[in-house]
């Protein structure tokens, strides 16, 4: 993690002290270095979060390709689709036909696509922020890549201001114990190294599995019962009836009907709407 943050910090030192026409060296989430000479004008986004950021910083008009899951904002729906989120569903031929000069990809999902896209002359920049500070960094780097530095800085600044307001409202209050259910078969949850964990913390809560190693992990009912969460939260892509499960009535969250669903697109995408997810969680935990 320290290495990832230092890479982003190094990028910032370059980004804010070098003019756009200079040969600026950038490092992406895969550790790949390349030289940025000019702002990208024709961009393919293979990440819904990256698409949201592009439109948020004012670069929506430069986006010429997207995935079928890039559905926000509404203006993104008019952009041609080049595949799904999985790298196996992406059409390199479609990207080549769009004559794009930059592709924003997921470091976790699209590694195999990098040499293929570079082979057709597309510059590839991999993104995969693991915490909110890296999200802010990614937004400003996208601004630099697209020639939208000032608006990107404004988007990141507004996020920080709104998060600070939420944290001020919840500061000093008891942090309710929260179980985040990612999936039910097997039962999976969020570890400490996730945006979900940080969103819960910034909202004034305490993830009951925050101290466990890993990002997404399989857990048992017994582990949840021992930690006895006061709230059970889940994304809208996994809206299940927890109360129907045998034995779960022994958990405080179920006893007190403190089970809620958070918009999956705000909590799982690393764009500006992360603040909306934090706000929604804070309103539940601290009404």
Quick structural overview:
With 287 residues, the protein is an alpha/beta fold. It is 38% helix and 19% strand. It has 2 domains: 2-153, Rossmann fold; 170-285, Nitrogenase molybdenum iron protein domain (Rossmann fold, 3-Layer(aba) Sandwich), CATH 3.40.50.1980.
Describe the structure.
With 287 residues, this protein is of the alpha/beta class. It folds into 2 domains: 152 residues, Rossmann fold, CATH 3.40.50.1980; 116 residues, Rossmann fold (3-Layer(aba) Sandwich), CATH 3.40.50. Helices cover 38% and strands 19% of the residues. The chain contains 11 helices and 13 strands. The strands form 3 sheets. Strands 8, 9, 10, 11, 12 and 13 form a 6-stranded mixed β-sheet that branches. Helix 1 packs parallel to helix 5 and helix 5 packs antiparallel against helix 6. The longest helix is centred in the middle third of the chain and has 22 residues. The radius of gyration is 20 Å and the shape is globular. It starts with a helix and ends with a helix. About 5% of the residues have low confidence.
